[in-house]
Amino acid sequence: MWLRTPLVALILSAAASASVPLDALPSEGALQALAASGINSADEAAALGLDSADLRELGVAEVNDRVAILRQRNGVVAAAASVAAAVATSVGGVVTPEQTRQDFNFVASHVNTTRQWGKCINIVVKYRYPRGSEVYFDYRDMRELALHYAYPTEELPIGAEWEQINMRFVQESVARWNVTGLSSQFQVMESRVPEVWEPGNHGSTITTGDIEPVQEPWVDNFRYDCTSRTSPI
């Protein structure tokens, strides 16, 4: 005759757990035993936090049944811990730069440019800092570069295409500033004068790196024609 010591019981329990498939469900007999005590499902038993001894007292005699129920309980505990961690982070918990992605946006709206013999344009830019970075730069420097390319240059004269202009701005911006992604949009107001007939708002959007494209609307995106007026009124 041998004694069932705590160590022996632990070994037997571990062996039983290892022999029970991970997706095993409690038997019908185990569910009936729970129902007799007013517990309607294995999920409810798991949520109550019952341990092996509790389940045995409730009439769940088979080790395999207890293991299956306890595995569900562990799943409930793990899920609750995950939710608690998320709540702690979003409600007063510590958020580190490594846990975030920081984007910065700016616009230059209703810019009266002499490009293509007079156009009203909007420039919309979004860029993303490297994850964990706490080194930022003044967006006004990049905005000044965008405005520089909004007007004719020796490299890109008055008749240059907007695709070329936007590409040059993006290339220089990525070379000068530490960003992991950048999206730039040059919006051009329609032109219906005889000299330049370009119906409908149009323009160029370029996106590079780890960032989503700028999603500004193209319909009704100009409040007034800045080639002939300085304000909506």
Shape: elongated
Low-confidence stretches: 6-18
The major β-sheet equals: 4 strands, antiparallel
Q: Whole-number average pLDDT? A: 84
Fraction of residues in β-strands = 15-25%
Structure summary, number of beta strands: 6
Rg to the nearest angstrom?
33 Å
- Helix count, per DSSP? 7
SSE order, as H and E?
HHHHHEEHHEEEE
Strand order in space, largest sheet: 1-2-3-6
In percent, how helical is the residue content? 25-40%
Question: Which structural class do the helices and strands define?
Answer: alpha+beta
Q: End-to-end span in angstroms?
A: 101 Å
Quick structural overview:
The protein is α+β, with helices and mostly antiparallel strands.
Offer a few descriptive terms.
alpha+beta, 6 strands, four-stranded antiparallel β-sheet, 233 residues, two-stranded antiparallel sheet, elongated
Describe the structure.
- The chain is of the alpha+beta class and 233 residues long.
- It is 39% helix and 18% strand.
- The protein has 7 helices and 6 strands; from the N terminus they run αααααββααββββ.
- It has helices at residues 6-19, 28-36, 42-48, 52-57, 63-90, 139-150, 162-176, and strands at residues 103-113, 119-128, 181-188, 191-192, 197-198, 202-209.
- The strands form 2 sheets. It has a 4-stranded antiparallel sheet, with helices on one face.
- A hairpin with a 5-residue loop joins strand 1 (103-113) and strand 2.
- The chain starts with 5 loop residues before the first helix and ends in a 24-residue tail after the last strand.
